[in-house]
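[Meeting: bench + compute handoff]

Bench side (C.D.) handed over the final construct sequence. Compute side (W.E.) agreed to return the predicted structure before the next meeting so the bench team could plan truncations. Sequence as handed over:
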Amino acid sequence: MEQTEEFGESLLEYACRQGLLHTLAEEYVLSCGESASDESQSEKKREKKKKKRFPNVAGFCRYFRVGEAEYACLCAKYPTEFDRLGALFEDEALNSEVSPTILSAYLKKRLGYEKSGGSEVCDGQLKIVFDHDIMEDGE
């Protein structure tokens, strides 16, 4: 875990305290695109174009050498800063070239998107619940 010399705290906590978490997040997002732009033009013609890395929460943690527990702790301690960070990752996800299946799973697991209770599992069997009266259609 990276430490700031002055306070002995993680770089992310220091950035949160100073209101600079968005600056670190932008640094991370820019680093995700660098791997694709490092090749020379002739190499790009010969090889398939490398895809830009998908900026995400796990990659952000890896980049700044923090674990999920510290990330969650900082989320609770600095909710406004991490709310902004969540918006950044949502925007990056929605504007990425990742498949809809991966995008949907990512939004649900990492960014807290959940479907409203349209179905539920009871005793190992799927129970589907409809809040629509089919007899009222067309009236």
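W.E. noted at the follow-up: Residues 1-5 have pLDDT under 50 and may be disordered. C.D. will use this when planning the next construct.
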